[in-house]
Design brief:
The protein has about 220 residues and is α+β, with helices and mostly antiparallel strands. It is built from 8 helices and 8 strands, in the order H-H-E-E-E-H-E-H-H-E-H-H-E-E-E-H. A hairpin with a 5-residue loop joins strand 6 and strand 7. Helix 1 packs across helix 5. The C terminus is likely disordered.
């Protein structure tokens, strides 16, 4: 797996132009450590999509509101997807935070970037299979974006049997465990688009520091 140093620096709030040699060495070391200890896992299933007046239904997942509905408009199928780095990243960050907060912060950023990189790799695999059927991916859209309620994390974990299949669970407050994990919906469309695998999910949060515009400045 390739973890981009620039992405880690972006999570740390700086860029390759402003990072000194010491920080870059520490980033590289944290990436190397995480790659050694983590065993990422993912799972996905394809479901039919039904558009309702005020909601969208994907398999048994019924999502009220307009944002996800608009994001996958025109899609007759959608992927429900989940991925996790596994518990080792969390344990390492927790241990490190007790002795070296600076390194723990870098590990947090590296693990976040690694999670995104792994999801992108898995999306590329899904995309290749979908193209065999003449289908193309929309960007992944996760619970918590727009009006796609975070409580739908539970529905996704149940649909994919995540606790048993990839060891992914959640807390009562709908936080994923392990924390370096993702759940998402990915629309499948017959229309090829230039916007597929992407950090920006097209949500309405104009001030989000991780939008494409922010990334382009680094």
């Amino acid at each position: 797996m390739n973890v981009d140093e620039k992405e880690v620096l972006r999570y740390l709030g700086c860029s390759s132009r402003t990072a000194d040699d010491l920080l870059r060495r520490n980033v590289a070391g944290c990436i190397e450590t995480l790659l050694k200890i983590c065993t990422p896992r993912s799972i996905y299933k394809v479901f039919p999509v039904t558009f309702l007046p005020d909601a969208v239904q994907i398999g048994n997942l019924n999502v009220a509101g307009s944002d996800l509905r608009g994001h996958i408009r025109g899609c007759k199928k959608a992927v429900i997807f989940a991925a996790t780095l596994g518990i080792q990243a969390d344990l390492l960050i927790e241990r490190t935070s007790k002795t070296d907060m600076s390194r723990a912060a870098i590990l947090q950023a590296a693990a976040a970037a690694m999670t995104e990189s792994y999801c992108d790799e898995q999306e590329a695999f899904i995309s290749a299979k979908a193209e065999q059927e003449g289908l193309f991916l929309r960007p992944r859209y996760s619970p918590g974006y727009g009006d796609f309620a975070i409580t739908h994390q539970r529905d996704i974990l149940t649909l994919l049997d995540c606790p048993k299949r990839i060891g992914l669970t959640m807390t009562e407050s709908c936080m994923l465990v392990p924390t370096k994990s993702v759940t998402a919906v990915i629309g499948l469309t017959t229309e090829k688009s230039g916007c597929t695998i992407s950090k920006c999910m097209g949500c309405n949060s104009k001030n989000c520091p991780f939008r494409k515009e922010a990334k382009a400045e680094n």
